[in-house]
Amino acid sequence: MQAVDKHFGNVVALSNISLKVYAGEVMCLLGDNGAGKSTLIKTLSGVHAPTHGELLLEGNPANFTSPGQALDAGIATVFQDLAMIPLMSITRNFFMGREPTKGFGPFKYVDWEFADRVAREEMAKIGIDVRDPSQPVGTLSGGERQCVAIARAVYFGAKVLILDEPTSALGVKQASKVLRYIAQARNRGLGVIFITHNVHHAYPIGDAFTLLKRGTSLGSWRKEDITREEVLNMMAGGEEMASLDAELAEFQRTDSASVA
Ligand SMILES: Nc1ncnc2c1ncn2[C@@H]1O[C@H](COP(=O)(O)OP(=O)(O)O)[C@@H](O)[C@H]1O
Ligand SMILES: [Mg+2]
After folding, report:
1. Which of 5, 32, 42, 149 satisfies CB 3.0 to 4.6 Å to 52 for a cystine?
2. How would residue 36 be classed by pLDDT, with cut points 50, 70 and 90?
3. Is 11 near ligand 1, meaning CB less than 6 Å away?
4. Which controlled-vocabulary keywords does the entry list (predicted)?
5. Which pLDDT tens digit goes with each residue over 206-254?
């Protein structure tokens, strides 16, 4: 992404953003609510056209006018408002828009037997045992649903996987499961953009970090050049968190005093 701006009328949602994502690496995109993270990935994935600037994929200009085009080029995005239909089966969600067909012409039909088998196998590869892939996706946990979305991207040969806050609504155990699958996708050679506002989710898995604040980039760092504490402090609220810690410690002292 080179010198990208995105305006919505008078609102400047992104200003002069440049960043790079490499194959086989996780790039964490960090920033507070409203920083422009979702707008940035929507610009990368063909939902919004940039107002200025350009996108390059493997060195070639990539001007997508729809998410379908970005997907065809190998950029798979799991949006924050997870695009899945809860009452539809796991298989249907897995193959949505890419249903495998058999036969041709007027005799073409969707090969659900094949689809069910692939969905079951691909989920098994990432450690989720789906006994019945025709069960509604709504019966899966939030973490498992994120994993269906990741498995789908890997299966359809994505080069770049973009995940918008995949762990933010999850408990510790489920979040660690999703983080493990992100690592697997990276190990299979995908370039991953992992969006979060949780440094503790980002730091262990990130190879590089880009920090957004009010639509501008505060910079990008390789992991070896920045510590977890430095990332924490740079994120909006770093100082506030320190003073909150101090306040909480004070409360604790007065509480235990009143108990005694
Ligand atoms: N479609 C839109 N129209 C107008 N303003 C928008 C639109 N989408 C996002 N914005 C604005 O862009 C800014 C960044 O939002 P967003 O990208 O959702 O932030 P984040 O994902 O980091 O929380 C916000 O001020 C938001 O109101
Ligand atoms: Mg967002």
Report:
1. 5
2. very high
3. yes
4. ATP-binding, Nucleotide-binding
5. 999 999 999 999 999 999 999 988 888 877 555 666 676 777 777 777 6
What does the block give as tokens for 123?
């989920």
Instruction: Compute the radius of gyration of the chain from its Cα atoms.
Output: 21
Residue 143 in contact with ligand 1 by CB distance below 6 A: no
* Single pTM value for the model: 0.83
Cα distance from N-terminal residue to C-terminal residue, the chain: 59
* CATH entry 3.30.230.10 includes domain 2-89+141-226: no
pLDDT at 82 over 70: no
* Pick from 167, 170, 174: nearest CA to 203: 167
Atom of ligand 1 nearest to the CA of 31: 22
Ligand 2 centroid, distance to 38 Cα (angstroms): 4
Ligand 1 pocket check for 33: Cβ under 6 Å: yes
Flag whether pLDDT at 15 surpasses 90: yes
**Domain ranges (residues) in the chain:** 2-89+141-226
